[in-house]
Design goal:
It is built from 6 helices and no strands. α1 crosses α2 and α2 crosses α3. Keywords: Membrane, Transmembrane, Transmembrane helix. This is Protein sym1.
């Protein structure tokens, strides 16, 4: 418990001094990515799947580069819909609505575009990715993230909101990784 408290204190100190950089570093946490995420590699049965450093780098770069955008977005939401002791649920729901109706579709589009281009794809590959996986992924987003964001906006202090989302996002990123590679078969 003492270690956790020290880590939180250290994070708060870094966040107070350099909030965007601290957010970028914590947002670049590595997801669970192995070559087994790619359908063509699932035939391997002996031992753990090989580690895919390039894929790890792409996902960490995406998290690192999206952190300033998320930082600005969360700041905007907190200013536009302030939560107080007397008024908490309605502003939290307004934040979630804005987040899911504006940021989620755009963020998902940025994710698939970034990953496709980082994997060497061009305009056609990006268009195909949108045709094949964007809408199913957006529907899945709407099944997961509104509940996460209600909890996040209502109970998590602002400096921990992006790290909280990033932590939950590890499972989400694994899903997106599988979705992103699903049409490569």
């Amino acid at each position: 418990m003492a270690i956790t408290m020290r880590l939180i204190a250290k994070f708060n100190a870094y966040y107070a001094e350099k909030p965007v950089l601290t957010t970028m570093i914590t947002n670049a946490q590595p997801p669970h990515l192995h070559r087994a995420d790619r359908p063509e590699r699932k035939t391997r049965t002996n031992g753990p799947p090989p580690f895919d450093f390039e894929r790890l780098t792409r996902f960490m770069a995406y998290g690192f580069l999206m952190a300033p955008v998320q930082f600005q977005w969360f700041g905007f939401l907190s200013r536009a819909f302030p939560i107080s002791k007397t008024r908490g649920t309605i502003p939290a729901m307004q934040r979630v609505a804005m987040d899911q109706l504006i940021f989620a579709p755009i963020g998902l589009g940025i994710f698939f575009t970034f990953m496709t281009v980082a994997e060497g794809g061009g305009k056609r590959a990006v268009f195909k990715k949108f045709q094949d996986v964007y809408l199913p992924a957006l529907r899945a987003n709407y099944m997961v993230w509104p509940a996460v964001q209600i909890l996040n906006f209502r109970t998590v202090p602002i400096q921990f909101q992006i790290p909280f989302v990033s932590t939950v996002g590890i499972a989400w990123t694994a899903y997106l990784s599988l979705t992103n590679s699903a049409d490569e078969e």
